[in-house]
Amino acid sequence: MKAKTGKGNWSLKTTKKLGLPFVFLLCIFFFLAGFFGSTLFFQSQDDVFGVRSRPRPRLRTSLFESAEYDLLPSGETGDESITSIPFQVLSWKPRALYFPNFATAEQCESIIAMAKPGLKPSTLALRKGETAENTKGIRTSSGMFISAAEDKTGILDVIEEKIARATMLPRTHGEAFNVLHYEVGQRYNSHYDAFNPSEYGPQKSQRVASFLLYLSDVVAGGESMFPIENGLNMDGSYNFQDCIGLKVKPRQGDGLLFYSLFPNGTIDPTSLHGSCPVIKGEKWVATKWLRDQDQDDD
Ligand SMILES: *[C@@H]1O[C@H](CO)[C@@H](O)[C@H](O)[C@H]1NC(C)=O
């Protein structure tokens, strides 16, 4: 009893000695310390789990992904990791995507080196009434076809796989790569990649989309152009040689994907495109046409 009283007396005495303002400040200090302390604690919880108080499984393949995503178990043919392929929507009319740094400079240089010995003047799919002679000048590049299987370096295999992931169109739906070379003045007048049956006759399969991988920079000119993007230049004055509309400047390693067909399978008129003449330097590009039918069935 005595001791208790004594303690009580001591605390009272101390309070009296230090004064009420000090006790008041002490209370404020502990209140603020507690408040900010708890805030910090919850913030760090957020950082770790992304979503508060939801623990995540630790089954992940890379550090980067584990910090950002909570992956699901994949199906038999799926991936156990996240694929990150940055892109910019260039246009909805036509549906066109730009993929910066899709391939490395080394990959591009290797593809150019493997294509060089096989280059031949590019040809056109001819419509009724067209001949090689009367279509001269429409497409003046040279090129060659090479499939991923033919490339012993394995580079085209890697690129093809990446294109399939970016488009979710299976690799078996792609034609062989068409590697093209444009020198100063060389061009490709505006055209469609899809084949309109009324012009080209019945088709076994149709080109759905085109993926262009720019293998080189071009000093000047050589842009890919979509002259009637979003309904531009449709007043009837458009000349198929004009380099106008949406222009995409080739940069080594960058990719361009555009769809020639609407989701309902009809040809998108705004997918009309061409290659502006090279003004300075040279242009190298690898094109992959993606079809609606499995190409292995042919
Ligand atoms: C297909 O889709 C386009 C774009 O949405 C539309 O303009 C066109 O009328 C459609 N054609 C058919 C046959 O459904």
Automatic annotation (TrEMBL):
Catalysed reactions, semicolon-separated: L-prolyl-[collagen] + 2-oxoglutarate + O2 = trans-4-hydroxy-L-prolyl-[collagen] + succinate + CO2
Cofactors named for this entry: L-ascorbate
Sequence intervals crossing the membrane: 20-42
InterPro entries: Oxoglu/Fe-dep_dioxygenase_dom, P4HA-like, Pro_4_hyd_alph, Pro_4_hyd_alph_FE2OG_OXY
GO molecular function: iron ion binding; L-ascorbic acid binding; procollagen-proline 4-dioxygenase activity
GO CC, one annotated term: endoplasmic reticulum membrane
Subcellular location: Endoplasmic reticulum membrane
Origin: domain of life: Eukaryota
EC number: 1.14.11.2
Family of this protein: Belongs to the P4HA family.
Protein known as: procollagen-proline 4-dioxygenase
Source organism per UniProt: Quillaja saponaria (Soap bark tree)
